[in-house]
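hey team, just a heads up i'm posting the complex here instead of the shared drive bc the drive is being weird again. everything in one block, sequence lines first with there labels, then the predicted structure for the whole assembly after. its two chains so it's a bit long, scroll down
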Amino acid sequence: LAKTTQPISMDSYEGQEVNITCSHNNIATNDYITWYQQFPSQGPRFIIQGYKTKVTNEVASLFIPADRKSSTLSLPRVSLSDTAVYYCLVGDISRSSASKIIFGSGTRLSIRP
Amino acid sequence: KAGVTQTPRYLIKTRGQQVTLSCSPISGHRSVSWYQQTPGQGLQFLFEYFSETQRNKGNFPGRFSGRQFSNSRSEMNVSTLELGDSALYLCASSPYLAGEFYEQYFGPGTRLTVT
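-- predicted structure starts here --
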């Protein structure tokens, strides 16, 4: 199972772009990269998922270099409501189940006015 | 479409008691997973059910058990509660077990406090 490494915490200000990088040096060929967001006392919420290159949705962008050993979650123009813990997950979702998807420690993002 | 619901939201029990938590997945979802979240250990996988069958189990003692009903609703049970069982218990549902764009939808969790 690919292990992920993320910064424990990050701080930023409203209106800024925030990039959170996740390292997954042992990522396997069939592994996908998924990011979740979690607010206090709530369950995690799916943000974005990708396999390679770049993926963008209405919430965020995910950049994955060619070697796939890392990925960067990009949150454009953050607001106070983006203060949360962000988890990077790597797993073979093509033929595995929830048990193969490991949540790491996450990155605690704090946004200031 | 209604999200994943969990009941109760908060629970206080004493050591040695047992507890049952309930989860109703999103309509049409057949996979239900349970997680335990604590400040020290983070989010840890407990077990996963699909079509009333337990498909996978995490590294937890036998005091932790669960089941899934024909309507996909799931319950988990913890017997002989210990102080260390105090945690946020999260339920997540998915339409299927795996596949591209696999995504889990989490409920708000049940906050269990053992005294």
